[in-house]
Design goal:
- The chain has four helices and no strands.
- It is 58% helix and 0% strand.
- The chain is mainly alpha-helical.
């Protein structure tokens, strides 16, 4: 699979790594930005390490990966 998510170093920290993986999982920065309700420039800044990933965004990303409890 081609990496469609631009990140110079996706392993720089756990928040960027998770954001990078979800970017790939969602199919790109635009879809992830839509899900997180931020602009694509903000996503790219977080991925590039230009701005820190806020805790609430990190937690929202974790929610995507968390298995849902059985009803």
């Amino acid at each position: 699979m081609n990496d469609i998510c631009s990140s110079p170093d996706p392993d720089v920290n756990v928040k960027v790594k998770l954001l990078h993986e979800l970017c790939r999982w969602f199919g790109g920065e635009h879809r992830l930005a839509h899900y997180l309700r931020v602009d694509v420039g903000t996503i790219n800044d977080w991925l590039a390490g230009a701005r820190p990933v806020p805790d609430h965004v990190f937690l929202a990303c974790l929610d995507v990966l968390r298995p849902r409890a059985a009803d």
